[in-house]
Amino acid sequence: MVILTNEVLIFLTRSYNMQNKPKHFATGQYTPQQKETLRASGYPAASRETFKVPDKFSYANTALEKLPCNLCDGNSFEVIATRDRNPLPVTTVICRDCGLVAINPRHRADWYRHYYREEYRNQMARFKGLSRAAVYTPEYHFNKTVPRGRALLELMQPYIKSGLTVEVGSSAGGILYAFREGLGVSVLGIEPSPEEAAFARLRGIETIESLIEDLTVEVPKAENVLSFRSLNHMLDPRGFFLFANRHLELDGRLVLEVMHFLNVAKEYQYLPRAIQIDHVFMFTPQVLRQYAQAFGFEVIYEGTDRKGGHMYLVARKVRDEATGADEQRAETYGETMAAIRDIHSSAALFFLNHRVPQYANRHLYKTKSALKRVLKALGLYTARRK
Ligand SMILES: [Zn+2]
User: Fold this and answer.
1) How far is the centre of ligand 1, averaged over its atoms, from the C-alpha of 374 (Å)?
2) Ligand 1: centre distance to CA 307 (Å)
3) Tell me: the pLDDT tens digits for 148-162?
4) How far apart are CA 204 and CA 162, in angstroms?
């Protein structure tokens, strides 16, 4: 009997994942002058057309920073994982005081800026098994998020107010488009990606191109502040909650959609599956509630999507002051740790249950095409006519 030990499977998982790692090479055409120089220095003609150079993007070249807890300012952490889903070496900790899960130490803000510009979309494409990031156009995002925005609105409409609606991390404007269409309210997006902000404006969604940390434009007070699937990416959630408190009228609504950290880890029975380098902070319903309460909000609705991978929260602003975390801390840490201990986190099982089928699906099409070519060559295949 062949016994596949955990170690062997971890090794196989890593070897497999190596193929999905950044190539670290860029190719291109030489300029006529460069070709001339190469010809003069005796380069073979075939090598004078295109070049291949190491890509500048690297995950490992910068210093990391260690920060106090973003929610409670505490400094006592427990390491819960040392790899993310890709599997990059990422240290994930839980705060012993309030239960917030975060990557810590982490890359600095300038590294993340570089990462979002150069690598983020490519990494997402590789993770999803797409051969290139080119599918992630602003139009793709817009077309994908309009129906999602409509569904979210249907779910949350009773808790949402009529009036100016501001979205932080508004991408190509799809969510705001659906909100404007459904509620007839005026909308304003804040989005750092120039291409996505420009596309949103083309669709009539007024959008400020900026990170909220760098805002130089005055944002008027709103009745709703939305953030859908953006909070995980923010380097300072505290700053976002302060922004929401400052820019909402009293009784205004904060509307969030965030990845449900524990549900994703539970579904895959593999903790690193719920961790990704671009999700600097990871949330449980308890911690998200604590954030809202600490920054002047009262939670009025909580829910999850059908699969439970994302959670929703609507909270109303009840006071102007935003004091920080309240006292109920240790309990949340204990609950979250108990849930984490219940997750098997076997790299072997994750590999067999999720990576193998994913790999198979990805290559099914290629295999079919190759088979067709062989059959055609042998004269055994004729295209079916409609
Ligand atoms: Zn904390």
Assistant:
1) 60
2) 28
3) 999 999 999 999 999
4) 19
